[in-house]
Design goal:
Layout lengths: L7 E6 L2 H11 L3 E5 L2 E4 L5 E6 H8 L12 E6 L2 H13 L3 E8 L5 E6 L5 E6 L15
Parallel strand pairs: 1-4, 5-8
Antiparallel strand pairs: 2-3, 3-4, 6-7, 7-8
């Protein structure tokens, strides 16, 4: 049986230095200095940035991509005001806003931005999911 946990999320990036600068500017704490890869501590899994060609080679798949990647990463916050403040910050560091924060059909408030490689990040407030002390949603 496989443990139900995510230890590491790795994003394939085209320019590691540019991506490091972006995630540093987001305020993510960098950990575990290693040549050719960057690691960031989050409230859950470790986020890693790895050159897309190397990541594809490691997985034995093609590095060709286009359009939406079919994946998003979400950061849940405790209020609409926190979502708005987070969007002000990501916009100030040059993130591409994919969808401005808005009230959504499921009763929350969310929007999306993209990192320099187009990876989609959602910033959301969900009134149905209280956050624990580590900022992780409690789904009941």
């Amino acid at each position: 049986m496989l443990p139900a946990r995510i230890s590491l999320v790795t994003l394939g990036v085209t320019d590691l230095d540019r991506s490091r600068a972006f995630y540093d500017a987001l305020g993510f704490p960098r950990v575990g200095e290693t040549e050719g890869v960057a690691f960031y501590r989050t409230g859950g899994a470790i986020l890693s940035l790895f050159p897309v060609e190397s990541l594809a080679e490691d997985a034995h798949v093609s590095s060709e991509r286009s359009g939406f990647h079919g994946v998003s990463v979400a950061i849940n916050l405790a209020s609409e005001a926190e979502v708005d403040a987070a969007f002000e910050h990501v916009e100030s560091i040059g993130a591409m806003i994919l969808k401005a924060a808005e009230h959504v059909s499921w009763g929350g408030y969310s929007g999306y931005f993209a990192d320099p490689d187009g990876h989609a990040w959602e910033i959301a407030y969900n009134p149905h999911w209280p956050l624990d002390d580590q900022g992780l949603p409690q789904l009941g």
